[in-house]
Amino acid sequence: MNYRSLQAPSSVVMVRPHRFAVNPETGADNAFQATSVEQDEALAASALAEFDAAVTALTSAGVTVHVFEDFGERDTPDSVFPNNWFSTHHGGRVAIYPMFAVNRRRERRTDVIELLKAEYRVQEVIDYSGLEYDNLFLEGTGAMVFDNAERVAYVAASHRADPVILERFCTAFGYEPMVFPTADAAGRPIYHTNVLMSVATDYALICLDAIADVRRRDEVAQRLAESGRTVLQISFDQVNQFVGNAIELTGTDGRLLVLSARAEAALTPAQREVITASSRLLPLSIPTIELAGGSARCMIAGVHLSPR
């Protein structure tokens, strides 16, 4: 695994939702989630069609997509967002996370972990999910945005990223935690880090205005710049269009920035120029799925493991 591919895996895990719905258990602190949506078979069918089109777009670009079916028997409305309950790391390590919403805990599934063990070199699986009983939560790559080259975990402070378990995780996996307070344009804390920032190989998208402490804001910007990346500032409006909820992957012809069509349309010409100098834009049309408060990055769990 070379340095240039650390941020952009070529394989991903995605979960196909047969009974997609907007999760009532997560709406209290997810300002990006729709509040009044008709939950019916038409909504679920629309989400399923968007998911299938997204998988087709990714595989056509040369990304390996491991698709798992979720038929909804366990009441898992957010299962299309698997990045919150597990993550994979270079050196053959996998982490399983404790989730805040009770119905999201049912998204964890052993067949995903068994597939990873069968197809990739997995040396160790560390399961933190039992910490839910102590009301400690750390929601994977929603709560943490990793700079895998510099070994930094950027974290928006929230009850979905408890400092006790964050410190434990970062010590075990070799990351430096960089935690900061956040506030959106209305002054509300932002529930997940990956809606306000994304770290790619040559650039980083980030809403610095969302970092509530000015000194910490400058430190985060400096840390990103010191990594050699171009720091692309995104506005609160672009955050609301899910511009920050993007993920860099590697396809047949090089790196891709995968984001929603809505997010891609919100990019400025200057941002687009920097991004396309390093990676091709791959927009996914997922307006129904975005009603649940997550976008393209949330749908994709990157596989940072060596194939067998």
Summarize the structure in words.
The protein has 308 residues and is of the alpha/beta class. 27% of the residues lie in helices and 23% in strands. It has 10 helices and 15 strands. The strands form 5 sheets. Strands 2-1-15 form a 3-stranded mixed sheet. Strands 3-4-5 form a 3-stranded mixed sheet, with no helix packed on it. A 3-stranded mixed sheet has the order 6-7-8, sandwiched between helices.
Secondary structure elements and pairings:
Layout: E1 11-17, H1 41-60, E2 64-70, E3 86-89, E4 93-96, H2 110-119, E5 124-127, H3 140-143, E6 144-147, E7 152-156, H4 163-173, E8 176-180, E9 197-199, E10 203-206, H5 214-226, E11 230-233, H6 236-240, E12 247-251, E13 254-260, H7 261-265, H8 269-276, E14 280-284, H9 287-290, H10 296-299, E15 301-302
Parallel strand pairs: 1-2, 4-5, 7-8, 10-11, 13-14
Antiparallel strand pairs: 1-15, 3-4, 6-7, 9-10, 12-13
